[in-house]
Amino acid sequence: MQVTSMHFKARAGQKLADLRLQENLKKLSTKWVAGRAQAILELDDFEAARNDAVARRNRALAELDVWLERFEQEATRRGAVVLYAETPEEASQLVVEIARRHGVRKVTKSKSMVSEEMALNRALEAAGIQPVETDLGEYILQINDNEPPSHIVAPVVHKSKDEVSDLFARVHGRPRLTDIPAMTREAREFLRPHFLSSDMGVSGGNFLIAETGSVALFTNEGNEGMCTIVPPVHVAVTGIEKVLPTLDDLAAIARLLPRSATGQSISNYFSILTGTRAAGEADGPEHMYFVLVDGGRSALLGGEFQDMLRCIRCGACMNHCPVYQKIGGHAYGWVYPGPMGSVLTPSYVGLEKALDLPQASTLCGECHVVCPMKIPLPDLLRKLREKQLDRGLRPWGERLAMAAWSFAASRRSIGRWCGWLGACRLAGGRTREGALRWWAAGPRSGTCPFRAARPSRSSGRAVARTVGASGAGAGGRGSAGSGSGRPGAQTTSRSPPPVAPGALKRPILSASMSMKLGSPSASCAISRPTAAACCTPWPENPQASIHPSAPGRRPSTGLWSGVFS
Description:
Blueprint: H1 8-16, H2 19-24, H3 26-39, H4 46-62, H5 64-77, E1 81-85, H6 88-101, E2 106-109, H7 113-118, H8 120-126, E3 130-133, H9 136-143, H10 161-172, H11 180-197, E4 200-203, E5 207-209, E6 214-219, H12 223-228, E7 233-239, E8 243-244, H13 247-254, H14 257-261, E9 269-274, E10 287-293, H15 316-320, H16 324-327, H17 338-349, H18 366-370, H19 377-390, H20 396-409, H21 412-428, H22 432-441, E11 463-466, E12 491-494
Parallel strand pairs: 1-10, 2-3, 2-4, 4-7, 5-8, 7-10
Antiparallel strand pairs: 5-6, 6-9, 11-12
């Protein structure tokens, strides 16, 4: 599949302006997100099941070469042939050579994202072999001028029922249908002759089982059975990272895959295929091949991106991603969209070919939370961003801004002035005059915009201010009130001074933020939530609010930490 990830920004803008696409993508949050949330409740301990599955995948990856060798031995013992391909292009050529060896004219395919990496349909057509997609979603895309999929589980999630109805009427030459069961029946009527006349079937592989030499497949349509046991030749293509040591490992992960993908307790069809047809068996292929693709996967082993190899292709990360929910999958420009694609695409095809994908995330962390394999996708995206800066792949303006920020953040005096300017902006209003009024006082003048207190929001109760506290309570820097750090300090209460009407253009932060910046022992509640700096420390009162417009919110320390010290 051709890589077009370098056009992400332009495509994302087009998708945001596509009103029909925006409507079609709503099904992600209304169906699959809610379905997953309900399905995981069926497990007695979802977190324990997830931790167990992660440990099993890690053990397999830690000795990947050992388990691949074991798989090859067992598969060969049962009549299959195992082939390895370093690149997707080599894998396509291997499949074409197998087809030519057996005189294949028609190939029926079950859905496989690895075959999309390989651009297998294009290679087969170039060799004069007819490929037929039999997954309903992939079939719809194929008859629509070989449109690429936009989701790894539901390839046509971007299309509406009316769009598919119009497509069927145009391609099939039949009256337009709008009833979904009737439309699926029409598709089956067109696919059935292809199933019966196929010379070779191609499938993917959700997992490979080393102890039996088997391939496991999860589907919801049953077409994979017609592709794998009816034709005389079956070829399974998958990545080298999909191997599992035992059937017990498969059972552990099978509890998570359908629940995370589509919100189902179990997929409609689950198959474990082992070897060729034995004597006396009624079905099964006469010849079976495994084509195991590297395609950049081995380069991730032992490195900082190895966690990505745990991915089981459930699609939960993209279902929950706010970016994917708005632009769909085509904007990402390659096989894998969403957060997983923003890591896999640069890793497999090169960071220089996917410059915008590491930035295509809000880093909200939702993908990490829902991932059944606990892949730290936000951390991996940050690492890719760091690599871009290190290699000079970001625009010069962005690199200059980052360098300026790094320079300022690493120098305490500059950081103090930057923090003061931000505080002045908050307290002095959005006008330039208000900000300059506070700026003129300077951070060492002893006058802080936070010194002015506001009236109590409800009861007019007194606001306690710490006069002295132990040095240990302020992280070793003494108290904000006295700086003496003596034990047995006393605490007094007083009402805040009144604020003249119109003195402030917007509400300021809480009076508990008061401090004395001129003192070397000064501290701030927003940077160190301790008793010496705030009357209600966060650990004891995590619902404390620092802004009158946001009651009940816990303040973030990320921007301010270390600025006032």
